[in-house]
Amino acid sequence: MTNTLIVIIGPTAIGKTSLSIELAKQFHCKIVSADSRQFYKEMYIGTAVPSNDELQQAKHHFIQHISVQDSYSVGDFEKDALNTLNKLFKKNKYVVLVGGSGLYVDAVTKGLDHFPEVSEDIRTTLRKQYDKEGIESLQQQLKVLDPTTYAKVDLQNTHRVMRALEICIGSGKPYSSFITKSSKKRPFNIVKIGLTAEREIIYNRINDRVDIMIKEGLLDEVKNLLPFRSLNALNTVGYKEIFEFLEGNWDLDFAISEIKKNTRRFAKRQLTWFRKDQEIEWFDYQHNLDSVVSYIKKTATEYQQ
């Protein structure tokens, strides 16, 4: 195989977008986004979508290509991304994949486990349960039905908890029993680059980014999305906190502090996910671009030998 997928991962606000654009220029190739929050056309500021200038510097795929009202799963993304990569590799032997959504990166590089179909009635029932009793009720139900998944899943991620529960209920088996842990062979080589920094630096960058989002108009962006608040796409950091402010439950300063706190927690979970992957070569966020390029070329050459 001569085609190489360059994967750029790391915690939020670490500089993945900038590096991916620089590498796209170096290798004269396109970028595929694996940031699930940036898929939605109505969400721009709170998801840190690349700026118009950045989008003009390199062609991006899967940026704001669907609506928050669309049903779009990680399985849909896996299929669409692989089809896109197949087309891009016909024109260039390199493509850059970038994102902080570990599950979506893994969907492209490793493949997904396949789960049984679930009745829409089960989803509806779980959604009503969540609306009436909150996330704690779903967490406790998952703890009973699948202790293994309960111990591993992000219990604050409503979508993940509900997804595990609907499989447990629909199949009568634990969600974890469908996890094979076996990677699928892809028809291209994969070089993984991770960006990191000291925790204090990451947290400071996150705090600064949130302040910038507020100045750029995050409140107005979220206000326009109030009619869609119940959608899964909007149950995410930066939006759910502002909803609380807009509905009079929190004051603005507290909502902003919660965004910063929850984003820092999200970054910690991202690093925990990525640290498990031994294939990632880690670079400091203030990396020397030449050293990153050299590593990619060297590794890509070794794959071909």
From TrEMBL:
Broad class of enzyme this protein falls into: transferase
Binding-site residues, substrate: 12-17
SUPFAM superfamilies: P-loop containing nucleoside triphosphate hydrolases
Site (Interaction with substrate tRNA): 101, 123
Pfam families named in the record: IPPT
Family according to the record: Belongs to the IPP transferase family.
Annotated protein name in UniProt: tRNA dimethylallyltransferase
